[in-house]
Amino acid sequence: MIIMRDIKGHLKFLVLHVISQEPSHGYHIMKKISQIMGAEPPSPGALYPVLSSLRKQRYIETHEEGKKKIYRLSEKGRKFLKEHEKEIKEALEFAERFRMFSEICGSSIRNVMDVIFKNVKNLSSDQKSKLKQITEEFEKKVYSIVYGGKNEK
Q1: Domains: count for the chain
Q2: Could you tell me if 87 and 135 lie in one domain?
């Protein structure tokens, strides 16, 4: 799915953006990205490899505060952000579109896709046919709303 690939492509820049705003621990970074995108936070399995990579590249530094590891931008990271302002802007614009999409219909579409995907092997031919028909009708209605009656892709 294109959206998931795009999220992964922008995650590094969203993480750097959040850390540039204020030094943060991992949970806070996940929470801020969740707020920016209006969606579930990235999983620890997605976030911590990004943090590790950024640390190895010396874009971020860490220090301990009690039991928490706090991540902050390094001088090299600040320079990287300035050199990649365009990518940061694109990541934030993507996050905004994702948030707006989620507000309009994101959870409904994800829920429908999830229920169909989980049950597809058990559906009868009639159920599959009906789902195909209403999905095609839905697609046409979306194009009509978005493109003002033109069926463009």
Answers
A1: 2
A2: no
